[in-house]
């Protein structure tokens, strides 16, 4: 029997980023298992922290004094052996702490909250007891820490040995319970009872009648009350009288929208031949447990979702489980409702909109094997599904699959790891695959599957590129060309629907002085402030700084300081003015802030309650509305000029995606793209629906500039409140990298980041581009490790493998 446990503690620092050995107290010897959470003492003093058991040992020759595990927090492991191995790999790959990776993989509810408490350990004065402790034995230190007099009294008591300061670890994993009832008597006994009830005691009679209908069953009190229309009182009385037995049972929290199903998607569709060919290859791999990566390149509206559903169905039929990744659940409620319609109560959905409790419940349903299909966004890649038969990643090119905070993992890489672990296929799908994935498919590392035609057997919608330069010269500043306006009016007359996208990527809505060019910036972050009409303020999107909208230029005192660029509110007003009779739904961060609003607005549009859906890029993805025949992009350009080598790829993806919303069913579609750069190659190739040519052109550019996918990249970022310190640290690192790397490895920088100052810290970065570099990983790990003691206090270092943005 093991007597020692290796524990990873919840102290995320470099020095503590390793397992610590603890003694297992005798009373716990039969219970401890790897993957359970424990509470352990840590450091000097009385600090208690949460930890995870990552290994069990026999005592070796170690004869020093070992601390004991204080308590076990779980009855069964919360981290299984797959997840344990994955967390270790993830920490190594992303240069982050093991403990942070474990927490990233688990629902937040399993991260215990640690609080500091003061506890009475000896007799104390009655006055103190009352005043300080409110007559209980222990108090939360946070409640007194801002009152110096109270703190000094407590410190005095501590010196006298009467109270102790301790850390307490509180598990937040709360299971929700509900009252369940069942009849305690037989049908006949209720019959007899009823004879004794007065005829005007209507509630009692109703209750007894009801109980007779549920003999032998167990029913939640809540449901019983709904069925009978009775309040809780008659039930409580009946429980007291022994007519009903009641117990507390565990129930799952029901997230909003969990019951929405797209009934049309209930049964499998008859596949067309392209879909069938693609599916056959995937099902072969599922059946044979073949760890193959497939790339499904299917144009918009080609029926990729149906292929996903049938592949998942095959995995389930084989007794396995299935995981479907989507970029962002709230933006794509349709796909979720299709999965629910097909697989019913076997489905669990994981996304950021869930409360901690709801997420914990979904996680438990998966972990217990009750949910065998999981749909979710980025972190759902860690869903504790056992026995995976397939992993599918829809819109695999989406950047939201990369987490841009530590641990900086890419869900696609984690998906590859898990698919390999389970010997299962991984299916990546997109209309516009990432260059990384497509080049791997070209090289034969991934198996390419193609759906080149739309399901409705119509061509992709024709795209008109509208040059806005003459338009603006002729008609002054406007968001709508006459072509687009005519088309919108035409759809309105025909009772067809339109989608309009306002591209707000980039720096589009700031205030600029037309006389001196002054731009109002955040005093902390050096980036332009955004105007918010609802609150009449200028806000910083990075740090939240807020100030009033200026009337006069702070620089030259001119009155010509104005809003520059366009917001959805302004476009909405303009459109309503141009088309007073149109019913318009606006969808942007402001109208969708409240929980469930995305779904609600899309539902309204789907039900035909509006003619036009006007939104930011959040409306570009995945929507499938048969009555939409017109798509307009108001400003294709923002985004093309950002200082980022992926800017063209992103613009191509976005414009292709949004164009794909038109003409998906019986009626023909049409697209207008308004631009100030009609000759830009990205826009020209979007117009031709030519992904292949875009891929070829862009690959040449990437090759010439030595960018991915020809090179791998890693970014090292250092920050400090003082610019000098941040810069010095990065120059030192540059030195250290020196000549140790491969000869074709390229080191760029250090340079200040494009946004050099953020939340009052200065950022410097080094970007390394490499092909094969045996030393690099080890060297970076070492640099990270040493940084703890080497640099000035307050300096922070982070390493980002394959960064998605270089801003
Ligand atoms: N074999 C089929 N027969 C008839 N209809 C189909 C078939 N396959 C898919 N569909 C329907 O075609 C429409 C488009 O399919 P789906 O939404 O899966 O496209 P997609 O390839 O995911 O497109 P996008 O990339 O634009 O989201 C859906 O309404 C779907 O129900
Ligand atoms: Zn000015
Ligand atoms: Zn700011």
UniProtKB/TrEMBL annotation:
Q: Outline the extent of the Helicase ATP-binding domain.
A: 285-451
- For whether the record's keyword set contains ATP-binding, the answer is yes
- Positions annotated to bind Zn(2+) 2: 522, 525, 540, 543
Q: Which Pfam families match?
A: DEAD, Helicase_C, PriA_3primeBD, PriA_C, Zn_ribbon_PriA
Q: How does it assemble?
A: Component of the replication restart primosome.
Cofactor binding summary note: Binds 2 zinc ions per subunit.
Name of the protein in question = Replication restart protein PriA
Q: What is its EC number?
A: 5.6.2.4
Which cofactors does this gene product need? Answer: Zn(2+)
NCBIfam families according to UniProt = priA, PRK05580.1-3
Q: Which organism is it from?
A: Limosilactobacillus coleohominis
Instruction: Indicate which residues the UniProt annotation says bind Zn(2+) 1.
Output: 513, 516, 553, 556
Q: What class of enzyme is it?
A: isomerase
Cite the PANTHER family for this sequence: PRIMOSOMAL PROTEIN N
Q: Which gene encodes it?
A: priA
């Amino acid at each position: 029997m093991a007597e020692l446990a290796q524990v990873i503690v919840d102290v995320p620092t470099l020095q503590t980023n390793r397992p610590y050995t603890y003694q297992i107290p005798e009373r716990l010897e039969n219970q401890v298992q790897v993957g359970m959470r424990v509470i352990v003492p840590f450091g000097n003093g009385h600090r208690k922290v949460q930890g995870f058991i990552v290994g069990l040992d026999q005592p070796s020759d170690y004869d020093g004094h070992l601390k004991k595990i204080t308590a076990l927090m779980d009855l069964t492991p919360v981290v299984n052996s797959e997840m344990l191995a994955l967390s270790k790999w993830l920490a190594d790959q992303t240069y982050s702490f093991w403990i942070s990776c474990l927490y990233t993989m688990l629902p937040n509810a399993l991260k215990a909250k640690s609080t500091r408490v003061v506890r009475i350990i000896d007799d104390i004065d009655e006055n103190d007891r009352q005043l300080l402790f409110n007559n209980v034995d222990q108090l939360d230190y946070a409640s007194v820490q801002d009152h110096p007099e109270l703190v000094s009294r407590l410190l005095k008591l501590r010196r006298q040995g009467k109270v102790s300061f301790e850390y307490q670890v509180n598990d937040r994993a709360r299971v929700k319970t509900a009252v369940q009832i069942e009849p305690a008597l037989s049908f006949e006994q209720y019959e007899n009872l009823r004879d004794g009830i007065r005829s005007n005691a209507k509630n009692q009679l109703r209750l007894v009648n009801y109980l007779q209908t549920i003999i032998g069953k167990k029913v939640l009190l809540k449901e019983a009350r709904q069925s009978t229309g009775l309040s809780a009182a008659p039930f409580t009385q009946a429980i007291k009288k022994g007519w009903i037995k009641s117990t507390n049972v565990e129930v799952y929290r029901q997230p909003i929208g969990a019951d929405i199903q797209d009934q049309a998607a209930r049964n499998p569709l008859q596949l067309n031949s392209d879909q069938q060919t693609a599916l056959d290859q995937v099902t072969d791999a599922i059946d044979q447990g073949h760890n193959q990566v497939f790339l499904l390149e299917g144009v918009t509206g080609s029926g990729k979702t149906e292929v996903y559903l049938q592949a998942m169905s095959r995995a389930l039929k084989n007794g396995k489980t299935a995981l479907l990744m989507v970029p962002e659940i709230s933006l794509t409620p349709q796909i979720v409702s299709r999965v629910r319609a097909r697989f019913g109560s076997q489905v669990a959905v994981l996304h950021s909109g869930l409360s901690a409790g709801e997420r914990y419940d979904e996680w438990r349903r998966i972990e217990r094997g009750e949910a065998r299909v999981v749909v979710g966004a980025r972190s759902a890649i860690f869903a504790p599904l056992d026995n995976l038969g397939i992993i599918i990643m829809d819109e695999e090119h989406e950047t939201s699959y990369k987490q841009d905070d530590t641990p900086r993992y890419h869900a696609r890489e984690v998906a590859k790891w898990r698919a390999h672990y389970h010997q299962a296929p991984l299916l990546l799908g997109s209309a516009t695959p990432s260059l990384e994935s497509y080049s791997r498919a070209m090289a034969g590392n991934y198996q390419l599957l193609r759906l080149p035609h739309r399901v409705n057997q119509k061509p992709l919608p024709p795209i008109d590129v509208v040059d806005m330069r003459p338009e603006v010269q002729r008609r002054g500043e406007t968001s709508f060309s006459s072509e687009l306006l005519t088309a919108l009016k035409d759809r309105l007359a025909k009772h067809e629907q339109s989608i309009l996208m306002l591209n707000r990527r980039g720096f589009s809505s700031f205030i600029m002085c037309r006389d001196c060019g002054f731009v109002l910036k955040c005093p902390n972050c050096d980036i332009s402030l955004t105007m918010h009409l609802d609150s009449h303020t200028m806000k910083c999107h990075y740090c939240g700084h807020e100030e009033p909208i200026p009337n006069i230029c702070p620089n030259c005192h001119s009155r010509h300081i104005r809003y520059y660029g366009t917001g959805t509110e302004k476009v909405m007003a303009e459109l309503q003015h141009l088309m007073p009779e149109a019913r318009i739904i606006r969808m942007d961060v402001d109208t969708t802030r409240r929980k469930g609003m995305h779904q609600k607005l899309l539902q309204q549009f789907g039900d035909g309650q509006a003619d036009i859906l006007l939104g930011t890029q959040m409306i570009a993805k995945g929507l499938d509305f048969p009555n939409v025949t017109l798509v307009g992009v108001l400003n294709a350009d923002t985004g093309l000029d950002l200082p980022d080598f992926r800017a063209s790829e992103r613009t191509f993806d976005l414009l292709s995606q949004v164009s794909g919303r038109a003409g998906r069913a019986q009626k023909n579609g049409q697209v207008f793209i308004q631009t100030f750069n009609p000759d830009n190659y990205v826009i020209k190739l979007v117009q031709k629906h030519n992904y292949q040519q875009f891929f070829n052109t862009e690959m040449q550019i990437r090759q010439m500039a030595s960018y991915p996918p020809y090179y791998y990249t890693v970014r090292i970022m250092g920050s400090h409140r003082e610019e000098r310190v941040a810069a010095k640290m990065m120059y030192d690192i540059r030195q250290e990298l020196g000549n140790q790397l491969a000869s074709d490895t390229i080191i760029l920088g250090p340079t200040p980041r494009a946004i050099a100052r953020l939340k009052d810290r200065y950022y410097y970065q080094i970007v390394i581009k490499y092909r094969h570099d045996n030393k690099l990983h080890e060297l970076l790990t070492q640099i990270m490790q040493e940084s703890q003691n080497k640099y000035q206090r307050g300096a922070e270092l982070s390493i980002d493998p394959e960064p998605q943005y270089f801003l």
